[in-house]
Amino acid sequence: MFTEAYMLRALMASVLLGPVCGLLGVFVTARRLAFFSDTVAHSALAGVAIGLWLGASDPTPAMLAVSIGVASLLLWLRQRTELLTDTILALLLSTSVALGVVIFSQLKGYRGEMERYLFGDILSVSPMDLLTASIISVGVTVLILVWFNALTLITTHEDLAHVTGIPVRWINLGFTLALTLVVTLAIRLVGIILVTSLLVVPAATARNIACNLRQQTVIAWLLGLGSALGGVVASYSFNLPCGPTIVLVCAALFVASLALQKVVRPSGHTPAR
Amino acid sequence: MTPHPPALQIQQVHVALGGTAVLRGVTLSVRRGELVALIGPNGSGKTTLLRAILGLQSIDSGEIQILGAPISPSTLARVGYVPQKLELDRGFGLSVREFLALRLPETRHWLWQSHRKIDAALAPSVEELGVMPLLNRPVSRLSGGQLQRVLIAWSLLRKPELLLLDEPTAGVDTPGERSFYELIESVHRRHQMTIILVSHDLSMVFRHAQWVFALNGVVCCQGTPEDIIRNDSLKEAYGLHLTPYHHHHSGEVSHVH
Question: From CA A57, how far away is CA A51, in angstroms rounded?
């Protein structure tokens, strides 16, 4: 199967996006950003619809633009209103999905396209998609590693990080942008509906078996890689839809980690939540 | 020889939050090397003042000087801050070793360094606080007392000249409180640093502080614990009945209800 060009591209996309999702997931879970990721992913549906409506052959740039726009709108609304973040996220998620579906309903012959983005279609990854994924995955991985100490301290206590001289606002902004870019690209892999699981489940699995943050980070990175790669191979081998298969591999590893945690963790360490 | 400027000098600081004046002209001066308590009832502006000192809250007017200089990253580098609690969820794996390693330049690459190398760098500064046995424990699962020790150790790693503690015994039981304040006194004695405790826990504060500032939008009274406990402004601010207590420094016997 590795001789077929589309399969090679699919495998490369999973190798590029799986690990960076695992790495980001360590901070997404700790900073309770899962719902934010979900909102950004769903807003991409409006981006796809707008891109196709404008006649673009590849809606990825429109997807990225709308996702970044929604993330910025969230930050702006959080600063300017007294609404709770959850409320703003729900508002943005439902509005962007509704907008996407309404625009899709006016486009002729694109119904299949909507499904491709909802559930992912890694087998249709183009060489251009691969190039974008390479740049963003490598860039975001380097950024996270360079900012690792700052992000850890901000996660621990924002004021403490500020007093230590960390530019908290800029790093939060950079992290939000990095997360938005990766989520939008990972939609190719697993689809809008399932993309949050690729961020959250490997990191949650790592929490079950790691004893410290170093282990948690390395395990989440490896699980992101393993789930994405394993999912692509399994979906090809058993002729299953790719995105859901990747998510099921993630979930199977999570269940296995629950059984493993008693063996791996030293006594006295209670399971992570 | 020029005398050292005060550790903290606050002049006529005003802060309004959401249209309400929280600090209405706070003026105070903390001498170097003192163990000072900043007390006040809920809503008296203690937290706002602390945030202003740390540069986390902008002030409407007035002036704050730390160690003789205005607030800046270089001044804050000479200040240690111990927050009340951390914002971690219980599943975040950060161990005490990793948390402390974030503080030292020589262990900033802790992600790639061996535990032995990190421990060797940490030990000289944190051994006295008894945190070495906690190094493998996740920070998110420490008890209130253990967390306060770790946070003090974090601050001491950079050898601060001024240490600010925000409600340090809020989540600590009574025996833990006592040993915590004993620890603070021993740190104060050994390192000769200025320590400011922000607290509403009057009885413990009166036992251990050398000087007390009572805040109620303004500094309503200040003095030694013996003096301040008899001050009518304090009784008014708290609505308390205050009776004699035992103070570590003077030996006088008092009690706070």
Answer: 8
| The two three-digit tokens of residue A13, written as one number | 């996309």
Interface touch A155/B51, C-beta < 8 Å: no
Of B55, B79, B89, the CB nearest to A30: B89
For helices A195-209 and A5-30, give the axis angle rounded to 10 degrees. 60
Mean pLDDT (10-residue bins), chain A, 273 residues: 79 92 95 91 92 87 92 89 91 94 86 81 82 93 96 94 93 94 87 90 95 95 95 90 91 94 64 39
Residue B20's CB is within 10 A of a number of other CB atoms, namely 9
Which residue, among B54, B111, B140, B162, would best test binding to A if mutated, counting the most A CBs under 10 Å from its CB? B111
Mean pLDDT of B94-109: 93
pLDDT, residue B255, reads 47
Q: What is the pLDDT of residue A178?
A: 95
Domains and CATH numbers, chain A: 5-191 (1.10.3470.10)
Where in chain B do CATH 3.40.50.300 domains reside?
1-78+166-257
CB contact under 8 A, A163 and B55: yes
User: In degrees rounded to 5, what are phi and psi of residue B161?
Assistant: -95, -20
Q: Is there a contact between A148 and B111 if contact means CB atoms under 8 Å apart?
A: yes
Contact call for residues B112 and B104 (beta carbons, < 8 A): no
- Separation CA A209–CA A255 (nearest Å): 11
Q: What is the rounded average pLDDT of the residues B218-237?
A: 82
The single-letter DSSP state of residue B254 is B
In this complex, is the C-beta atom of B144 within 8 Å of any C-beta atom belonging to chain A?
A: no
How far are the Cα atoms of A82, A141, A151, B17 from residue A79, in angstroms, in the given order?
8, 28, 21, 15
Q: Are B183 and B22 in contact (CB under 8 A)?
A: no
Residue B139 at interface with chain A, using a CB cutoff of 8 Å: yes
How deeply is A8 buried, as exposed, middle or buried, from its count of CB atoms within 10 A (0-12, 13-18, 19+)? middle
Q: Does A184 touch chain B (CB under 8 A)?
A: no
pLDDT of A267 reads: 54
Kindly report the CATH class assigned to B1-78+166-257: alpha beta
- Read off the pTM: 0.88
- Tens digit of pLDDT for each residue in B109-158? 888 899 999 999 999 888 888 899 999 999 999 988 899 899 999 999 99
* Structure-block tokens of residue A78: 């959080």
Of the CA atoms within 13 Å of residue A59, those in its CB half-sphere come to: 25
Q: How far is A51 from chain B (nearest CA, A)?
A: 39
User: B81: which strand partners?
Assistant: B164
A213: which chain B residues are within 8 Å (Cβ-Cβ)?
A: 92-95, 98
Instruction: Give the DSSP letter string of A149-216.
Output: HHHHHHHH-HHHHHHTT--HHHHHHHHHHHHHHHHHHHHHHH-TTTHHHHHHHHHHHHHHH-SSHHHH
What count of CB pairs under 8 Å joins A to B? Answer: 87
